[in-house]
């Protein structure tokens, strides 16, 4: 274990600047993904739009995050293009934070959030890609840390926004005193919309004015977040300077840091390695691949589609489930569930940084997925207990926190870091978070709040079954790869003997 510690520390010391830069970029990602839910009512006042209109802002961000995740692989060919894209995207996030207070129409706000979502998707893919390329077989530890920084940013963002949120109606109409919702009603609306705009139930009963005097201080929150985020593009710029990417001189040394390629093959950036969706379907690359190669991509993507979908669905609807019968939890108490869930995910990722080099990725994934199933089943059994809902929310966050980084490291290892795994998995996870949330929301509307837990439990079982299938296909793929290597050696032996 001491030797392992020394080796990991040695790797980190040689690549600390690149690693910290990618981690900070994920902090920027988390900062941007979590602010919209708490601030959406103030943004509704700012744009003087209806509740139904403002929910399109959530869709705009989520959809373009998916697009950005798909396009992120286009910047993988060189470290230069990756860092330039990362610098632009992190700077765009600060820029979007700064201009949000100037968006006085819901369409302008949707465009701003679409740009932010695109930048977030590119950051998601590039940071995962580059860390996997840097550390390869040792990437699990550093991927766990990378995803910890999403949670850290997601925790900071609401804390910054909270002091500037309006406690009462932020649009003062002529008859606002008689008809405006109370601060408790506004808190209920805010909590209902906190999960990426997953609004269900009859919330239209609250009269929200669109015409009148707008009084909101939320602009200060966005400007503070823009300043908090500025060190991130500065860190990327510093890394570009360190890598000698800022000079136009042709006499420069290699544009790619020697350490960053020390563990990769010479052709890792020549199109044979990680790629975008376009590169994934290149016939020249796919020719001669066994069927297991494609099945592994599909299974890895499907597992993350489900698990990230569970995260999005649980965060989106746990509040609505808590305030509905039979629990009928108070608005303030139920509002803590979403924060508790994200806090437990962040703590879980911090703990799994240590666990990921004590145990293999398959063991961690087995523990996590079985834990998710057990917690979901217990939540179904004790569905009338408010106390157990909090306990289950904590344990669920801890268990599910490591699935994405562990699955990414495991699948990349199976395929020897030569495929489009990262782009496929990141895009699948983003798709699952958006699509499953919509599906679960529609089921809850038609079948009631209890179906929320049932949907998540069924999804957990499907995810675990897919993981067992992944292990079986991995075994077959390894055998196939070993046989092909042995056949190649047998064919080459006469040639070497004759020479």
Main beta sheet: 2 strands, antiparallel
Instruction: Kindly report the name of the CATH homologous superfamily of the largest domain.
Output: MFS general substrate transporter like domains
Category from helices, strands and their pairing? mainly alpha
**How many domains is the backbone divided into?**
2
Q: Class of the largest domain, according to the CATH hierarchy?
A: Mainly Alpha
Number of helices in the DSSP assignment: 19
Q: Hey, roughly how much beta strand do the residues contain?
A: under 5%
- Radius of gyration, in Å, reads 24 Å
Give the uncertain stretches in residue-range form.
248-275
CATH topology of the largest domain: Growth Hormone, Chain: A
Average pLDDT metric: 81
Amino- and carboxy-terminal Cα gap? 45 Å
Percent of residues in helical segments?
A: over 70%
Describe the fold and architecture.
- There is one protein chain.
- This protein is mostly helical and 499 residues long.
- The chain has helices spanning 2-33, 36-47, 51-71, 79-99, 106-135, 139-161, 176-179, 183-192, 218-229, 231-242, 277-280, 283-286, 291-323, 331-358, 361-381, 386-400, 403-414, 421-447, 450-498; strands at 171-172, 213-214.
- The chain folds into two domains: 18-176 and 193-202 and 214-245, Up-down Bundle (Growth Hormone, Chain: A), CATH 1.20.1250; 288-494, Up-down Bundle (Growth Hormone, Chain: A), CATH 1.20.1250.
- The chain has a two-stranded antiparallel sheet.
- It is globular.
């Amino acid at each position: 274990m001491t030797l392992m510690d020394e080796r990991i520390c040695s790797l980190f010391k040689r690549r600390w600047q690149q690693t910290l830069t990618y981690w900070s970029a994920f902090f920027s990602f988390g900062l941007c993904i979590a602010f919209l839910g708490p601030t959406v009512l103030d943004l509704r006042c700012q744009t003087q739009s209806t509740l139904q209109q403002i929910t399109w802002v959530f869709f705009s961000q989520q959809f373009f995050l998916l697009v950005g995740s798909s396009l992120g692989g286009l910047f993988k060919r060189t470290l230069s293009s990756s860092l330039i894209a990362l610098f632009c995207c992190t700077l765009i996030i600060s820029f979007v934070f700064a201009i949000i207070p100037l968006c006085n129409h819901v369409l302008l706000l949707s465009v701003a959030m679409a740009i932010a979502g695109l930048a977030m998707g590119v950051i998601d893919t590039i940071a995962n890609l580059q860390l996997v390329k840097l550390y390869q077989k040792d990437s699990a530890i550093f991927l766990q840390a990378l995803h910890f920084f999403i949670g850290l940013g997601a925790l900071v963002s609401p804390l910054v926004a909270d002091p500037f949120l309006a406690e009462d109606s932020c649009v003062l109409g002529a008859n606002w005193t008689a008809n405006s919702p109370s601060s408790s009603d506004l808190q209920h609306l805010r909590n209902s919309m906190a999960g990426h705009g997953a609004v269900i139930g009859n919330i239209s009963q609250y009269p929200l004015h669109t015409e009148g005097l707008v009084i909101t201080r939320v602009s200060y929150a966005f400007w503070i977040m823009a300043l908090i985020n500025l060190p991130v593009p500065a860190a990327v710029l510093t890394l570009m300077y360190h890598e000698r990417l800022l000079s136009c001189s042709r006499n420069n040394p290699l544009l790619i840091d020697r350490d960053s390629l020390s563990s990769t093959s010479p052709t890792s950036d020549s199109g044979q390695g990680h790629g975008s969706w376009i590169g994934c379907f290149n016939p020249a690359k796919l020719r001669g691949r066994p069927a297991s190669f494609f099945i592994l991509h599909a299974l890895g993507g499907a597992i993350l589609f489900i698990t990230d979908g569970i995260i999005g669905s649980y965060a989106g609807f746990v509040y609505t489930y808590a305030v509905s019968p039979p629990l009928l939890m108070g608005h303030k108490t139920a509002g803590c569930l979403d924060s508790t869930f994200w806090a437990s995910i962040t703590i879980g990722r911090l703990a799994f940084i240590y666990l990921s080099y004590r145990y293999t990725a398959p063991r961690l994934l087995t523990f996590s997925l079985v834990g998710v199933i057990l917690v979901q089943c217990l939540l179904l059994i004790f569905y009338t207990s408010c106390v157990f809902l909090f306990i289950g929310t904590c344990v669920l966050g801890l268990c599910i926190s490591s699935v994405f980084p562990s699955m990414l490291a495991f699948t990349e290892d199976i395929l020897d870091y030569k495929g489009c795994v990262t782009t496929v998995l990141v895009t699948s996870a983003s798709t699952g978070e958006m699509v499953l949330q919509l599906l679960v929301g529609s089921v809850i509307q038609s079948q009631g709040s209890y179906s929320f837990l049932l949907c998540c439990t069924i999804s957990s079982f499907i995810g675990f079954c897919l993981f067992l299938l992944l292990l079986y296909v991995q075994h077959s793929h390894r055998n196939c790869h070993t046989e092909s290597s042995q056949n190649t050696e047998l064919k080459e032996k006469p040639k070497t003997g004759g020479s």
